[in-house]
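Journal club side-thread
Mid-discussion, someone asked how the predicted structure for our own chain would compare to the paper's figures. Pasting it here so we can look after the session.
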Amino acid sequence: MALNAPPVQKNQSASKESVLRGTELLTRDDLYLFNEGSHFRLYEKLGAHPMIHQGKSGVHFGVWAPNAEFVSVTGEFNGWDRESHPLHQRETSGIWEGFIVDLSPGSLYKFHVRSRYRKYRVDKADPFAFFNELAPKTASLVWDLSYQWNDQEWREKQTKAAVGKSPCAIYEMHPGSWMRVPEEGNRFLNWRELAPKLVEYLHKTGFTHVEFLPIMEHPFYGSWGYQCLGYFAPTHRYGTPQDFMFLIDQLHQNGIGVILDWVPSHFPSDEHGLSYFDGTQLFEHQDPRKGFHPDWKSYIFNYGRNEVRSFLISSAMFWLDKYHVDGFRVDAVASMLYLDYSRKEGEWIPNEYGGNENLEAISFLKRFNEAVHQEYPHTVTIAEESTAWPQVSRPVYVGGLGFDMKWDMGWMHDTLAYMSHDPVHRSYHHNRLTFRMIYAFQENYVLPLSHDEVVHGKGSLLSKMPGDEWQQFANMRLLIGYMYAQPGKKLLFMGSEIGQRQEWSHDRSLDWHLLDRFDHRNLQRWVEDLNRFYRTHPALYEKDFKPEGFSWIDCNDAPQSTLSLLRRSHSPSQEVVVVCNFTPEPRHNYRVGVPGEGIWKETLNSDSRHYGGSNQGSLGNLEATPVPFHGFPSSLNMVLPPLAIVFFTRGE
């Protein structure tokens, strides 16, 4: 059978001699490493590669389909004739290859696959395609990835950067809904249009990195990219591969890192994609109890298959090699680690030791992290892992999974639950704020206020905040400020920095018109100043992953719903004292212990008139007096403003 395939149009002039043998693109070593599961640059050998062979220009094609009896290339160039350009098998590797003359970049093509089982016939997009047709069309395009990069200075700088000791404030965004062109039918910005606007905006707001929701080609736009099929192709929706390279190049030249959301956990069932590729479960696990995801109705990769591991790790290396990305946020790691994830009793198969751990997925994740960090030591890998799995962000050589960092989902849920309470009730939920410090240094954490919290009926972050409009914005400033005060790297989803009122939708732009209002513009100004303060005060990032970089000053003042803490860097003179008031009642003559006498400067106050606050606080310098308090030899007597966070640094 062949569903949704282009119609056969017999090309009388085509002949089997149009496909030449004898190219050396795939060596014996390539075949061995591929079948062994340790070929991590398969994209250089499989797929479609323009080249010159025997003095003739054309394209070399290669595809893995070990259970096929016939594979051909069909496309515009042969009138979608499935018979005229057959490929030949390469020994016992399962790879079919061939060289087609007089074919050039931009040509549309698919692989026609006939299985040796059940008369299965299908036209498949190229799993290694560098570019694909604009959805809902599904053909692949031959493409040349040549591009002249200008980011050498950035790359050299990154090789010297230490992840844990550097500031990392991530702006998470969805390219199709960040900003649109309403005058032209609400169309997307393409990558080149996006580049100057995004660079200018990230410079203004002060973020160190941008993290794109999955940009790999995906058939259903409403999946936000999490139902991916093109593991080697940026989506056509926003332009060409070179257009995306241009965007990354511009970001790098302006000192902004790029993190990609990467989805090796599952893939959709579209017929032109990876599923049932050669009439068998080639990429997915054969047993549905291990190969089908009940939540997302998608297929799960067979991580125990050598060739699948080569495919996935090659995808990661591809984005590093060809697109110069700086890191990956790996989606849904928990769903990979547990065999019983979202499954009821009897719907899953225990591992060989009787446990629920997916040993093959664990091995794959470790190998992925080892391969990436061996080739690109500066690359950041971040796990979205929502359980208490041990040592996610510890090196493989000490028994960890090898990620650099992990999302702290517990902090996100606890903090948002606390902030959603009316302040009069917050004293009863004080432990929501303090609990994370029990485990805060067991992993290297990113604190996410992510897209997951502003969709599916959850409302925007601003809408979660209690009180009248003034209190909502004060709570928002307090929430974001508290994230920056805590140990861990930072992530904020687009729109939260301007007080987006509507829940995020992938079908529309952010409500940029809100910046015409003072309260929204003041919130954005708070984020800008917070990012600048963060980047210029090492105490807020230098020891993020070390217990000695943090201590509570007072975490027990539940009756007044206040907290105070100390952040430390390598230099004692750079310590930062942070005090929070989670109620709308200002606290006069509020005393806080500090580690030294002298002047302490109120450097940042979320209640400042500058940010739309009531302009209460110490409003300048305070002198620490030799009054012991909170276990410190000195203390500050301050005005603690309502629904506010205040940062103090040592004065001159």
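Post-session note: The first strand starts at residue 19 and ends at 20.
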